[in-house]
Amino acid sequence: MMITEKTENNVARLSLEGRFDFHSHRDFRTAYDAVLAKPEVREILIDFGRVDYLDSSALGMLLLLREKAEAGGKKVKLTNLTGSVKQVLEIANFGKLFAIV
Fold this sequence. Notes:
Blueprint: E1 2-8, E2 11-20, H1 25-36, E3 43-54, H2 56-71, E4 75-79, H3 83-91, E5 99-100
Parallel strand pairs: 2-3, 3-4, 4-5
Antiparallel strand pairs: 1-2
């Protein structure tokens, strides 16, 4: 999976591309740790527009991010959910845990 980060107006956007699975753990954590370390960031937007697959380990990684972000007073939002990615997140009731924009 490829991850690009862009921070603008206190919002960090992590744009994901490819398969979001167990093998993405280290890259995803490195990306979100860097964003969490920025004091000006108040919101983290995870962009799924180019994700074609995600598994249960990806769901766990999102939950860990949410926990760390909330501890630092930051919000996590999910965006550009489509196809099977959207379906998996809906089945897992992530709409109750994350703002989906």
